[in-house]
Amino acid sequence: DADERFKALADELGELQELLYAAGAHALLVVLQGMDTSGKDGTIRKVFAEMDPQGVRVVPFKAPTPLELAHDFLWRIHAQAPELGMVVLFNRSHYEAVVVERVRQLVPEATWRARYEQINAFERLLLANRTVLVKCFLHISADEQRERLLARERDVEKAWKLNTGDWEERKRWDDYQRAYEEALTRCATPEAPWYVVPADGKGLRNLAVAEAVVEHLRPLRDGWLETLRERAERELAALRAYRDASGAEQD
Q1: How far apart are CA 166 and CA 168, in angstroms?
Q2: How do residues 99-156 score in pLDDT, each as one tens digit?
Q3: Contact present, 68 and 75 (Cβ < 8 Å)
Q4: Distance between CA atoms of 32 and 11, rounded to whole angstroms?
Q5: pTM of the entire predicted model
């Protein structure tokens, strides 16, 4: 029944996002991490398809620019954090600074080791300011990644995704697994847990991510509805007062 369950969750996500946007009391940040071909783009397209695009922003994080490198590693991340009422989806994130930069030895070990607590402090700041944070690691096997890379070569319509660097990165598979394991362990807290999502199967992947996001938003639904009811009552009272004072007719 996975397809039926996913459809129901996707519809609920659309409804919850509408309430989040209208109430303006919280923001939602979804962090998607994973190895190359793990399905970050596909997850975004499928799981959040029922959300209103006006209230959603997707932010992909590539290699830092010279300007970004001249600041602390969280500078470019914080600038993209969602404002109240908005949903932001991170395609890769601040965790690149303790995964890619560690594996490729772009910074000294003392630098990336200090970043775990800096990340935890940053996420505590987001949570304290009413940002709902959902972190999903899309976990695929080495065999599945190989098949997906080869599939790109066979499919003319997906050939544009080809990158020889993907094959070069596969040589560091074990290093990346160790880096992710430590990052997820050091930066999983009761308030901001990591969800390790089996991602070899796309349907199960989408269902798991949808469930995680809904579980975080659903408890806030009644509060948003109460906020909107109070707002509606104020607006109706103001409208009645206006009509009484001006003699305006009601249709």
Answers
A1: 5
A2: 999 999 999 999 999 999 999 999 999 999 999 999 999 999 999 999 999 988 887 6
A3: yes
A4: 21
A5: 0.92
